[in-house]
Structures are given as C-alpha cells and as structure tokens.
Amino acid sequence: MKAIILAAGSGRRLQPYSSSKPKCLVEVAGQSLLQRQIEVMRSLSIHDITVITGYMADKIDVIGTRKFHNPKYAHTNMVSTLFMAAEILNSGDPVIVSYGDIIYEKEILRRVISCNAPICLPVDVQWERYWSARMSDPLSDVETLKLSAFGDVIELGKKPISRSEIQGQYIGLMKFDASLAGQLTTIYNGLERSDEYDGKDFDNMYMTTFLQILIDLEWRAKAIKIENGWLEVDTPDDLRLYNTMYGNDSLSQFIDLSL
Fold first, then answer.
1. Distance between the two ends of the chain, CA-based, in angstroms?
2. How far is it, in rounded angstroms, from Cα 34 to Cα 160?
3. Residues 13-47 as b or e (16 or more Cβ within 10 Å = b)
4. Which run of H or of E encompasses 163?
5. Fewer beta carbons under 10 A from the terminal one: N or C of the chain?
6. What are the phi and psi torsion angles at 249 (to 5°)?
7. 2-250 carries CATH number 3.90.550.10
8. Which residues, 6+ apart, have CB-to-CB distance to 89 below 8 Å?
C-alpha cells in the first residue's frame, strides 16, 4: 500500500495563516495537518508515503517521506498535482490519495484500506451536522453526491438543484486499487486537453471531475459511509473554530484524534 498526499496549493482562502507556510502545515489541536495524516497512515503500517509539494515547498520536510514537486502549482489544480507522481500510480500497488488540507480518524483510513473496489471513497452522510457548525447556510457550499442502490457513488461534484441530490459529501480521501491505479495515467493522458471540464481547463480540472470521468468509464466507486470523523481546513474561520473547540474539549463531537 502506497500513499500520496496532495500538498501543492497556496491556500489563498486561508490567509493570513498560509502567508508564511503551506496550507498543510497549519495546526489543528497543536499538530500540523500533514503530520497528523502521516501519523495516522504509519499507525496502519503505510510507510511508503509521497508528498507532492508546490507553494513554499522548502517548508515541507518530513523524515521518511518521498517528495515530488508541481512547479506549476500556481496555475494548476489537484489532478495535475496528482500526476506529478505518475510513477507511484504506475507501481502496481494500491494507492491512497489524500488532500493535504484534511485530517481524519484512524478508523476511516482503516476502512478505506479494507475496501475492496477499484475506487473507494469515504462519504460523510452526516455532512449537514458538520457543515452547520462551520457556516450559517450549509447548502451554500455543498456539492451533489448520489449513490446507487448498491452503495456506489454514481455522481459527485456538481452544483445541486435539489436536496435529494445530496446523499453525503466527498471528503478528499480515496483509494485506487492496483487494477485501476496503473491505468490512471493512460486515462488522464487520453483526455482532450483543449476541452473544458466542469467549466475548467484541463490543467485546472477538479478531482471530483476526474473521479466522475472514471465512474462514467464504469470503474466502480464504492462509498464508505461515515458520520463525520474528519475535518477540512478551508478558511480562517474553520481553523479558529476547530482550535477553540479543541480548547474547550468539544472537538470530539466531530473527530476522535486518538491513535
């Protein structure tokens, strides 16, 4: 099992906290997002970990990890960053891929590792409870996520028209099994570079768009239903909220930080 952490972004929405460090190095509960992820991975015997850097890459130096760099991080998005590590995807092993601005419980990663499908996606079915703590209008910052009768993700990442299109929320953590991981580069390179992808050019394609392409190609994406157990740090308000909750011992209502 290998892991790739996407940590290239500049975190513009997180200013001023990201003005002197990459977004992945901001701290929740006294620990950086990146270090927390790596500790959770290592606690489950994932030791082959690659971090893909971009913004302030020199600040990221974690012993025992491999680094790749996206030199065009300021003009590209998550998918372009992922394929900086094409050799890891092509290694013949299953690969965990995670955004660098999230943390999650050990049990969630354990379930992802155990999942037996080409694509495994944790899906927060209690998203509204978590979103409501972060913003006054939870529906203002939510995307579609539709599940089949068999518990597979069949659509994600679109702007919802109705509440019924939101059966959970994607959290930025996924696993590609060996049967698919080795084909990802071929699929990606086969896409038309002059096309638009959900309103974005090829280099700025969203990860949810790429996942939808794989789903439309009939790669099964198994939903791992979770009830919170994770955090994303997107804004200064997020960061202040989590650290305040940690200080008054209420953060545990959303995530168990124990290993």
1. 19
2. 31
3. ebeebbeebbbbbbbbeeebbbebbbebbeebebe
4. none
5. C
6. 60, 30
7. yes
8. 4, 82, 83, 95, 176, 181, 182, 184, 185
pLDDT bucket at 102, cuts 50 / 70 / 90: very high
Vertex 224 angle, CA 213 and 79, to 5° = 35
> What's the CA gap between 43 and 123, in Å, rounded?
22
Tens digits of residue pLDDT in 41-65? 999 999 999 999 999 999 999 999 9
Average pLDDT over residues 66-75: 97
pTM, to two decimals: 0.97
Q: Is there a cis peptide before residue 71, judged by omega within 30 degrees of 0?
A: no
Please give the single-letter amino acid code of residue 123. V
Mean pLDDT in residue range 138-155? 95
For residues 128-141, give the mean pLDDT: 93
List of residues 6+ apart from 136 with CB closer than 8 A: none
Helices (H), the chain: 33-43, 78-82, 86-89, 106-114, 127-134, 178-181, 184-189, 207-216, 236-247
